[in-house]
Specification:
Length: 213
């Protein structure tokens, strides 16, 4: 993996941080991905993408929202998350390459809500929280369906926030990580290892990013 570098960015929501993992071949786009409400950029799916994509001409920007940089345990309201993401965007666009907005869980929602206004080339939604666990009536499908740009959802087969078969029809693509939970962990009895699950995820994302041109 190429040598990462960090960049602090001041936003209206506080100090945010980008960990850049540069493309190891001719860079053609930036994939900016943020964490969820319960963790940081050490999430297995974000680490897997940062390891796999640079060899395919993709610079990965791992984004830490201001609340994480400040060491807080709880994520703020969605509006504040959007403010932090907007404040980061000029830095993400600075390399002059198309930027694919992405994230996992709450970060995926932010990417979906702001993609059109920020001029994102596409959206990558990892573990999109379609609804709170056990409450399918509280759907957030409108955020996903309203991106206005090419969108890929990568969802665990056993995600309590929305299994793949629960997602409504729409102008987006969906890839499933079999047996995966909300963090893409897979049970041992599934016969699938974590490494194999991450290969499914990175393969789907790599193929989709290639299809974008």
């Amino acid at each position: 993996m190429s040598r990462p570098r960090t960049q602090n960015v001041t936003t209206d929501a506080g100090e945010a941080r980008i960990t850049w993992v540069p493309a190891t071949t001719a860079p053609r786009l930036v994939l900016a991905v943020s964490h969820g409400a319960g963790g940081g950029i050490e999430a297995r799916d974000l680490k897997a993408l940062a390891a796999a994509l640079p060899a395919h001409g993709v610079t990965v920007a791992l984004v830490e929202q201001p609340w994480r940089v400040a060491g807080k345990k709880l994520a703020p309201a969605p509006k504040t998350l959007d403010t932090g993401w907007r404040g980061l965007w000029p830095a993400l666009a600075a390399p002059g390459l198309p930027v694919v907005a992405g994230g996992r869980s709450a970060g995926a929602r932010v990417a979906c809500r702001t993609a059109a206004e920020l001029g994102a080339a596409a959206v990558l939604a990892l573990s999109f929280p379609l609804h709170p666990p056990g409450k399918p009536e509280k759907s957030r499908a409108d955020e996903l369906l309203g991106t206005g740009v090419p969108t890929l959802v990568v969802q665990g087969g056993n995600d309590p926030f929305g299994r793949p078969e629960e997602f409504p029809p729409g102008a987006y693509e969906l890839a499933e990580v079999p047996y995966g939970d909300h963090g893409f962990a897979v049970p041992k009895k599934s016969g699938l290892t974590e490494a194999q699950a991450m290969e499914v995820l990175t393969g789907a994302v790599t193929g989709w990013l290639t299809s974008l041109g």
